[in-house]
Amino acid sequence: ALRPARRAMSSDARVAELDRRGYYVAVDVPRGATFALDTAEWTCDERFVGVKALTRGLHFVAVRDANERGAGERVGEFIDAAPGSVEIRRWDAAVETLGEGEGMSAEDAERARAATREGRAFDGGLAWYPTEVETRWMGLSGWITRDSLRRCGVDCGTRVVAGDPEAETRGDERGGVVPYFDNIQRAPTFTVNAVRKRPSGMTPAEVSAINIDANARLAHAVACFGDDGWRGLLGEFQLAFVLLMGLSSMAALEQWKHLAHVVCSCAETAVFDYPELYLGFVDALDAQLARAGEDFFVDDYTEDNFLRPCMVALMRIDVDDTPKREVTDMDVESTLDAISSKLAALARGVREKFDVDLIEEAREAKLADSSVIDAEEDAPVVVELSEGHYMAMNATDVDVESDAFKTDAESGAERMGWMRDGADVSS
After folding, report:
1. Between the CA of residue 111 and those of 100, 107, 201, 260, 369, what are the distances in Å?
2. Which of 31, 88, 169, 267 has the fewest CB atoms within 10 Å around its CB?
């Protein structure tokens, strides 16, 4: 069904708004097919030909046929909308999805674009891009860039499918090159080296270091995104979630889970090294959980119980534990305060929607850690004394007259040859 115009506007005002926005036109889409754009979705009828008034920037389109055999596989693509831009696609019944490229000759596509811009062709069958989707989509995709898409092999115009979660997903790490052909459906190729326990190209010592030190593992993950750094990591975190929601991609789910774990596992201390990363991460996670179903903490997506411990670790952040520095950076302090406020809001949202008290669980986890530390500090300390004697430092019943406390002369003990003063040990 088509959505009505979002607000009452004069004819001139509507034309002016459309000129500032973009179009996505999909002709010949069969009745009953599902058409999704960002977080909005339509069931197509004979009138539907796409969406108008797209905001500037990246958008994700996904379509799925519905026939006598049931729903088919979703196929998606990213587009980069600009003022006055018109993306033209035609349905191909032979492959039961959008045809290769534009699905028509270049001349026909250009005529359709011109008619859409100038003559408002298809206007009666174009749904308005919903106002409420704009803010929601920005929260889900604000860190995704063209570089994010290229890094994962799904640049604008590439037809994207869910992919195999068991497959190695970076061609450069399989020792070969992934061939690229226009118009071929492709699975995303995530930056798995950022989250592997044994990243390629690392020495055994380096592998041990990142598996022992969660902060070192995060630093390695950030470095895997090159000049984009933590921004690239956030972009891929969001991209994985978009493909999980848009295509039900299990490969995307795996990357999303691993990146969440890398960021959350050291949050308590790493937040002071990467405050902007954590500020963006909390915002991104909040937007994602708003899209998740109420059973997200217990359904198949999270059956290995990864999400709850991750979020508890995130809630252990205490900005008052800031390491002492000679010079106080007011920008950093402001960012940390914002993180604290956003974490509190995130915790409230999770409690209301999922009935999970993350703050209480984080408090209990800290108390448990403190108990372990106290127990280790109270344990007996064993030291090695001269001549190979040992004693427990907390011992209270010590016989000072025993042989253990006598000199060699008093005890009659005979030293080994290499123990004697002035012994020649060169032989």
Report:
1. 18, 6, 51, 46, 68
2. 31
User: 255 pLDDT exceeds 80?
Assistant: yes
CB 415 within 8 A of CB 387: no
Q: Please tell me the distance from the alpha carbon of residue 197 to that of residue 395, in angstroms, as a whole number.
A: 44
At residue 330, the pLDDT reads 84
Distance, in Å, from the CA atom of 151 to the CA atom of 188, rounded to the nearest integer, reads 9
- pLDDT, residue 78, reads 97
On whether the CB atoms of residues 216 and 128 are closer than 8 A, the answer is no
Q: What is the DSSP string of 294-361?
A: TTTTTSGGGTT--HHHHHHHHHT--GGGPPP-SS--HHHHHHHHHHHHHHHHHHHHHHHHH---HHHH
Given a contact cutoff of 8 angstroms between Cβ atoms, the answer to whether 211 and 217 are in contact is: yes
Residues in the chain: 427
Instruction: Give the amino acid at 320.
Output: D
Closest CA to 151 of 189, 185, 203: 189
Burial-class residue 149 by CB neighbours within 10 Å (0-12, 13-18, 19+).
buried
Q: Is 405 helix (H, G, I), strand (E, B) or coil?
A: helix
Average pLDDT value over all residues in the chain: 82
DSSP secondary-structure letter at 180?
-
Nearest to 253 by CA among 148, 164, 186: 164
User: Which helix H or strand E contains 96, and what residues bound it?
Assistant: none
Cβ neighbours, 10 Å, residue 286: 16
> What is the pLDDT confidence band of residue 165, given thresholds at 50, 70 and 90?
low
pLDDT per residue as tens digits for the range 282-303: 999 999 999 987 777 665 555 5
Q: What is the pTM of this model?
A: 0.81
**Sheet architecture: strand order including 86-92:** 97-98, 86-92, 22-27, 50-54, 126-128
Nearest to 160 by CA among 86, 72, 54, 63: 63
pLDDT of residue 404: 45
Is residue 305's pLDDT more than 80? no
